[in-house]
Amino acid sequence: xxxxxxxxxxxxxxxIFGLVSVGFAAVELIDIEDxxxxxxxxxxxxxGVIVGDPEGTFRPDDPVKRSEFAKMIVIMLGKENAAKLMQxxxxxxxxxxxxxxxxxxxxxxxxxxIVNGYPDGTFKPDNHITYTEAFKMVLCAMGYxxxxxxxxxxxxxWIIQAASLxxxxxxxxxxxxxxxxxxxxxxxxxxxxxxxxxxxxxxxxVPDPENPVTFATLLSVGKITGQVIRTPELWDWDEEExxxxxxxxxxxxxxxxxxxxDYEDYEGLLGHKVEVSYKGDLVIGVRRLSTETVAKxxxxxxxxxxxxxxxxxxxxxxxxxxxxxxxxxxxxxxxVVYEGKKPxxxxxxxxxxxxxxxxxxxxxxxxxxxxxxxxLALSGFDVVYEGAAEKxxxxxxxxxxxxxxxxxxxxxxxNLPAPAETYTxxxxxxxxxxxxxxxxxxxxxxxLHKDVLGDLSADLAxxxxxxxxxxxxxxxxxxxxxxxxxxxxxxxxxxxxxxxAVRTSSGNKYAKILTLxxxxxxxxxxxxxxxxVVYGVVYEDGKLHFETRVQSGKESTVLTxxxxxxxxxxxxxxxxxxxxxxxxEVTNVDPASGRIDGTLTVxxxxxxxxxxxxxxxxxxxxxxxxxxxxxxxxWHPSETLWISxxxxxxxxxxxxxxxxxLYVHGGVDDHMIVVGKVx
Length: 679
Prior knowledge:
Elements: H1 3-6, E1 18-22, H2 38-46, H3 66-76, H4 80-86, H5 103-111, H6 131-141, H7 156-165, H8 181-191, E2 198-200, E3 203-205, H9 215-218, E4 222-230, H10 239-242, E5 246-250, E6 257-261, E7 273-279, E8 282-288, E9 291-294, H11 300-307, E10 313-316, E11 319-321, E12 333-339, E13 342-349, E14 352-360, E15 363-367, E16 373-377, E17 382-387, E18 400-406, E19 411-416, E20 421-432, E21 437-441, E22 444-448, H12 453-460, E23 472-478, E24 481-487, E25 494-505, E26 508-515, E27 518-524, E28 533-537, E29 543-544, E30 557-558, E31 561-570, E32 580-585, E33 595-596, E34 599-600, E35 617-622, E36 628-635, E37 642-643, E38 649-650, E39 659-668, E40 671-678
Parallel strand pairs: 1-6, 10-13, 17-19, 22-24, 27-29
Antiparallel strand pairs: 2-3, 4-5, 4-7, 5-6, 7-8, 9-12, 10-11, 12-13, 14-15, 14-18, 15-16, 18-19, 20-21, 20-23, 21-22, 23-24, 25-26, 25-28, 26-27, 28-30, 31-32, 31-39, 32-36, 33-34, 35-36, 37-38, 39-40
C-alpha cells in the first residue's frame, strides 16, 4: 500500500445506533464480464438508461446510433414520460417521421436544445454518433449551451469543455470516430454527479452549489451526507465484520446512522465529509465535500497542536486514537481534513527512530535511543518499505530507520532515509517500466526508484511535456537510485529586448540587449545576431540559455518577425490600464517571408481545434492553424516593447497607416505576448 495515499486517507470506528447496508446490484448482461467498462455499464443499466437485447447481451464494443443516444440522454434527464407523450408527433427533421421508433426522444432532445440536426434539415438517426457529438449532447443536457460560449468552434469547443469536466476520463478519444456502447456508459457514469449549469452574467454558473442539479438527482437518486469513518486501508480492517468497503457516519437528531457501501474507489476518502448518491442498493457516485492539507515536515507539531482537540476524529498509525497530545518530529506525517475552514479529522504517521543492531531471517533487532534492543519480527507481516528500502534485503546493520510496527494487525512501515546525493545536467531521455526505469543526464545513466516513476511519466507525457530533451534537471540519489528530481526553473527576471551588439571572449558568448529599462550585456549559450528581438530569461547563473530548455514557456527565445499593416486605431480608457487599442488586418500567410505578392501579412501560431486566450491580443476568429482573420491587440507600455528604427527604445504604439513588424512569442503562461517595431 502506498503510504503517501494512506496518509491522505486513514481510519476510524464509532459507536452507532443504526446501521444501513448498501451494496451493488448485479445486472444480467452476459457479455460484459471482465470488460473495462463493466462497472459503468452495470450502473447505467440498473438506472434504466441503457438496456441489452432480448438475448441478454449488451455488445459493449458496438457503435451507437444517433437515435439510440438521443433516447439515452433524454432518460438521463428524467424525461422518458415526456418522450412517450411526444411519440408520433411531427418532427422538425425531414428524416424523422412520426412513426419512427425514437421520434418522441428526438423531439424532446430538440425542444431541450440538446440536438439541432444538420444544415440540410436532417437528423440522420441511423448514423453512428461520434465522440464529439456525444460530448456535445451530454454537455448541452448539462446546460453548457452554445449561447454561453464567447467563441464556438467545432469540434474544439466541445472537446475542451468535456476534458475540463472529466467526461473523457478513462476513454481514448478519437473526436470524429464513432463512440462505442461501452464508452457511452463510461461517459454517462463520469457525468452522473457533475453539477448542471445555467448561462449567467459571467458565463456558466451553478445556480445552487449546495444542492446542485445533476443527472443523478434527475433520476431520483437518493443522497446522504456524512463523514467517511472506515475503509479497507485501516490496519484493523476485517473483511467479514466490516462488510462494505466504505462506512459513512451520519449524525442525526433522533439517532446516528452508519451506512455501509460497496464502493471500489475509496482511496483518499477516509476522514472526509462526502455526499453519496445511490439508488436502491447501487452507488451512483461519491462527491467529496472537504479538503485535506498535508503539513510541512517542520510544522508537524504546530499543526497537530492546533487542531487535535477540536476535530471529530484523530487517527494515529492507521488506527483510531483519542484526542490526546503527541510529540512529533519532522520525519512524521500529519494531514488535516477541513470542512470549509473547520478541521474535522487529523491523521498522523508517528514513526519511531531506531538503529539496526542485527538482522536475522525476517527479523530486525533495533536500538531506540538509550533503550535496550527491540525485536521487530516481520514474518507474515504486511510491510510497506519506504525511502531507500524497497524490500527487506535492502536493510543492513548500522542503518538508521524510521518505523511503525503493529504486531496485533501484523503490519509495519519501514522507512530507510539516506544522505542525499545530487547530480545536475542536461536531460537526454528516460526509459520507464512498470516497476523500474532509467534516466540519462549528460553522458550518465541513473536507475529510477519506483516512487518517482509515476511523476516522471506525467512530466514526460503530452504534446507539451514539462520535461524535454535538453532541459536542465537535478536528481537526488540514494543508494545509487534517483528518488527525486527537480526541473531547473529560471528566476523571475525576464524581459523583451533588441540585440545591439555581440562579442565572444575566451570561448564565451555575450550580447548587449536594449530593453525598456535600458541596455545591458548578458552572457548567452548561443551567438546571437545584431537586430535579433529576444525574450530573455535570466537564470540563477546570470546567463541567458537559448539552447538549454527548461519548463515550457520559461526558456530564452529569439522571436521570428512577421508583418502587418495598421488599418484602424481605437482609443480606450480602462482606468489608464491600456493607452490604445490597435486592430491589425491579417490575410494569407507565408511563414517563410511573411509576405505574399506584396500583401502585408502576419502569422500568429495557433493550435488547430483550440481557441486560445491571448495575452495582449484577442482572436476574433480563427480559421485553422495556418490562417487568422483578425486580431485585436491591447498595447500596454509596460508590457510591449516598440523600437523606432535603430534609434533606441520607445513606448509609443503604432498609429493608423504605420507598417509594423511583429515579434510573436507563444507559450508564456499559456498566453502570447506581442512585441514589435514600426518600420
